[in-house]
TrEMBL record:
GO cellular component: plasma membrane
Protein name: Osmoprotectant uptake system permease
Protein source organism: Luteibacter rhizovicinus DSM 16549
Predominant localisation class: membrane
This protein's record includes keyword rRNA-binding: no
Length: 238
């Protein structure tokens, strides 16, 4: 249900919000500019979604590769470090990553994309390691008995059996990306955080509400769609 309701809510907001100035003025009559108009909400949503999608794609590729490496015999010594990084990295605030990245990459989308990718890798990495480590030994022995090589066993047995946890990591990575991209507007990225940041700076609550509504609807939409994919993946494993 969420996979249908949340995207529908997002579409309704994108249609209604550009024409809601009178509503916000009635709610907050002291505001001279009750509606954010610097950039259209549709353009902000597309830009936000593009940043999240690109960063999530890079994060999934990197997280899968590192997770596979850490669970191979040659990389087993890296497994404790990988697990520690996956846990500790989640406690590092996104604002700190942006603060470090801005002097190196400048203002705009680049530092935001870096922060999104770094945060997106951690859930995928952690869930890939957990999923591959929990593959049934019986399935691995059966694959070995059928003459599967290491790579064939990985692609045809291990990754399909670990697909459920991995998909959960992808889902979490995308949701984390939606929130982190919002903060990226503080360093010049064009996202749905733009009206929120401008509203906070200018003491305009209407801007904050408009941005927050769209960010929430987008996060719920992505979570709903990826939730459906995750459930189907888990059912197919049974």
């Amino acid at each position: 249900m969420k996979a249908i309701v949340a995207p529908l809510l997002l579409v309704i907001l994108l249609i209604v919000l550009p024409h809601s100035a009178s509503w916000f003025h009635a709610w907050m009559p002291t505001l001279s500019h009750p509606l954010y108009t610097r950039t259209s909400f549709f353009a902000l949503t597309l830009s936000h979604l593009w940043l999240v999608a690109l960063a999530t794609l890079v994060a999934v590729v990197a997280g899968l590769a590192l997770g596979v490496l850490a669970t191979r015999p040659a990389g087993r010594s890296l497994l404790p470090t990988v697990r520690a990084v996956a846990v500790i990295g989640q406690t590092f605030p996104p604002v700190a990553v942006l603060a470090i990245a801005v002097p190196l990459l400048g203002f705009g989308a680049a530092p935001t994309l870096l922060a999104l990718t770094l945060y997106g890798v951690l859930p995928v990495l952690g869930q890939t390691v957990a999923g591959l480590d929990n593959v049934s030994p019986a399935a691995l022995h059966a694959a070995d008995g059928m003459g599967y090589g290491r790579w064939r066993r990985l692609w045809e047995v291990e990754l399909p059996l670990a697909a459920g946890p991995i998909m959960a990591g992808v889902r979490l990575s995308a949701i984390v990306g939606v929130g982190t991209a919002t903060i990226g507007s503080a360093v010049g990225a064009t996202t749905l955080g733009s009206p929120i940041v401008e509203g906070l700076v200018g003491n305009n609550t209407a801007y904050v509400v408009q941005g927050a509504l769209l960010v929430g609807a987008l996060a719920l939409s992505i979570d709903g769609v990826l939730g459906v994919v995750e459930r189907r993946v888990r059912r197919n494993r049974r």
